[in-house]
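Comment on the following before class.
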Amino acid sequence: MRCHRTWKHWLGYAGVRLIEISVTRLPVEWSVGLGGFLGRVFHRLTGIRRALVREQIALAFPEKSPAEVRSLARRTYVEAGRSLFENFHLACRDPLRHTTFTVHGDEHLARLRVRREGFIVVTGHVGNWELMGAHFARGGLPLHVIARPLHNDYIDRHVVKTRREAGLRVIPSHGVPIHDLAQLIRRGAVVVFVFDQDARQHGTFVEFLGRLASTPRGAALLALRTRCPILPAYSLRQRGSRHEIYLFPPLIPPESPPDIDRAVQALTQRFTRCLEAVVRRAPEQYFWLHDRWKTPPAMVRPKRRRRAGLRGEAPASRACALTRLAVRR
């Protein structure tokens, strides 16, 4: 992904920094409340991605009425605003002093920490995933986060700096040889993947909330290459600055699978199920503003279908998928 540095991007960065400096003069609890209020206002006045958010919620939860879908969409913007304003404090002060974490499944992490080699953590855009990472880094975990660079280079550099100051080492997601990541794990590092963004033609297709979603292959492929366990970890806000972290039992990759593409798909499906369980618990805390199902299976080119785990699927509805995308845009 190309990062951009024009005067418009600089103005955008200056605006973000001005908001950040203003917000961090407030106590963390007040910032969380203000972020939720402005998220509600943003949803009501701008309508940015509102149709996409409602569409995805309605498709993921077909049992919900239109009124329930609209309510969930509104609360999604509220939760996004709360997390954004809470994360601003990572740049200027230590929000963890005013934040309470309750960890469920801590015994799974304790077992992995005694390993001589490192392991993989997978998480998703649910709750406050940024603050969860800072919490574990503060606890001594050597976290190396695979992150997709932002379009605005000024903002991206500031976000990377903030994450490093919080104890996270950031690795750009594009162009990172899997051999280098394997070496990090062998030296005891913990490699973190935020895996729930659309991977277009390059992903493996797994079921998420009842629909096939193109999902990055990196976490599963790295686990299969290194034979290291995967720890699914997700965060949910309870109230104010109180959070709960859910750690699932580690997933052990199979040894020498006969079909690497099927093994990647099966392993990815397993930790996607964990994310799905957390999202169903608090759907308003999922980041529905991402177009999770942007790439329909019918759009995958024939030569990529085997790698994507779509060998049994027929691309007959490709034209319908293209029409749907054109209408949505």
Observations:
- The first strand starts at residue 100 and ends at 104.
